[in-house]
Amino acid sequence: MSSDQMQMTVLGTKVFGRNNLQFMQHPKPAACTLSPTEVLVRVLYSDLNPVDHHKLNMKADGAAVPDHRSPFVVGFGGCGVVEAVAADKADDAAKSLLNAHVVFLADPSRDGSYAEYVVCDRRVVAPVPAGGAIASHEAAAIPVAGCTALESLEKAGLAISSAEAPRPSAGEGRRLLIVGAAGGVGSWATQLARSNYPQLDIVGTASSPESSAWCEAMGCTSTIGHDEVESLGGGRDGSVDHILCLSEPTPKLFASLAEVLRPYGKIVLVVSGEGIKSLDLSFLFFKCGTVSTETVFTSMRDGYRLDQAGQLDTILSLLDEGRAKAPISKGWEDERSGWKVANERGGYIDAVGSGHSRGKLVMKISS
To answer: Bridge-partner residues for 64, per DSSP?
Structure first.
């Protein structure tokens, strides 16, 4: 490392384990190292997601991070300002983002957004509409959970668009079940589905009266307990057209989903776990049901197959038009969101890893 190389602050770790996160200095990416499609973003707010904890804890606490990833910096989305593009070789699309206020997804194979700066491919970056209708913390809540929700809904047969207002009767006669509706992905899925399908019957599962109230405020028609799925009605005809499963599909839960699915219905699994290894598809087979899986990072790993910049733009447009709102957790406060406070025990980083937070939390990196 050159002695005159510019440094930045990151919240990272050299050993695995969430409790080992600490602030440290790390080389700031230089414009001369960027590829034609990459941009350097000065991070304003980092998205916070359960996947941050999954990555930090994927090996035994205290196990050394491999040298090529040390310090390990997580955070997989957020908002910021594009500060630089490739010095002499940036493509036109990257150049158009220079100095723009943007939202972004971060590549899990590289340093993430728990940092003052992050390198992103412009194919997962979208400019925030001018005019001030969308606050920076609201924009930062979109990338991981918002894109996961949008992709999941589309796989479930519910296309999401911001091109024009939906027909007042859109969704009539159809039912969407969201298992685990109170979290970040569930809240975004409810908002996005409601924005495009005013008459869709959206049923969310929730674990408490407070979570039920949150889900209904997001746009759910009704809520049921996590263990009450079959109360919707099952058998040969079923009662649900579209299912998003945001909890581990245990054998018992998956059997309930198969029971209530209507013929030719669609199930999207967003969480894996041990249950994914032994799914019983026998009843689904006779219903001609479809089962899909969803991970928002697959597109990046496959050469940016999906237009995720377009997805971000769609969600931003829905917010800008007032057709949806960012599901920021009721308990979120800007003065408590700074990354030093967020990293304290019981702060927002811990809250998002608890599995009990409702809606979205984000962390302020810089003003």
So the answer is: 15
